[in-house]
């Protein structure tokens, strides 16, 4: 896959601290995004000057939240963020880029061939349709959906003890508070907001981490409702 134009998007000085030996490969990916990615409408041209700081480095710092050897599914991968960055940085991970749009999956497949990433694969589909097909330790998502909806899509894809890592903005705390009920109705879980990459990226990356605490798909409250004949409303009417 040719990047489609001349000239590299030079990494900032401190990118070497974050990416180490993988920096040349991340630079190839940056080049691809800045040229073919823009030409094919996967990334806005205004993002090019801030590709490193706002996109690649901002995604890379979540790596510290991903356990060794994990199966990762990147929901709504788009042009590959954060999944491709994690795949480059961490060859120990098995990364699935999950994306429903054909045009984007074509780009992603060409991208992983071009970068020669044997630990990264692409699947075309919607997260909510993958419940019987995907089991992961970590689900990542950036700029995909509000947290409550993301929980409905992501939590069924996780193994017990697995986590959704949702990259969010400054309103992460209030978004989490609003979504807590929906998240635990989907699956028993604990959730917190973490800021990662302090001193490496400015501002630090805000992540909502939701960790599932049971094997099965539904919380005990919703199970109890189902086994006693449905919703709270119905029970109320019977009495
Ligand atoms: C705004 S883009 C973000 C892309 C990338 N994560 C990033 O940060 O640049 C949102 C992506 O989510 C995908 N998407 C939308 N609904 C989805 C669903 N139900 N399951 C998986 N992906 C979905 C879209 O096709 C799109 O590529």
Automatic annotation (TrEMBL):
Predominant location: cytoplasm
Enzyme class per UniProt: transferase
Gene3D superfamilies attached to this UniProt entry: Vaccinia Virus protein VP39
Basic residues bias: start-end ranges: 223-239
UniProt region (Disordered), positions on chain: 210-239
Matching InterPro entries: rRNA_ssu_MeTfrase_G, SAM-dependent_MTases_sf
Keywords: Cytoplasm, Methyltransferase, rRNA processing, S-adenosyl-L-methionine, Transferase
UniProt-annotated binding residues for S-adenosyl-L-methionine: 76, 81, 127-128, 142
One Pfam family from the record: GidB
Low complexity composition bias: residue spans: 210-222
Source superkingdom: Bacteria
Entry EC number(s): 2.1.1.-
GO MF term list: methyltransferase activity
Function: Specifically methylates the N7 position of a guanine in 16S rRNA.
PANTHER family: S-ADENOSYL-L-METHIONINE-DEPENDENT METHYLTRANSFERASES SUPERFAMILY PROTEIN
NCBIfam families referenced in this protein's UniProt entry, alphabetically: rsmG_gidB
Protein family according to the UniProt entry: Belongs to the methyltransferase superfamily. RNA methyltransferase RsmG family.
Stated name of the protein: Ribosomal RNA small subunit methyltransferase G
Name of encoding gene: rsmG
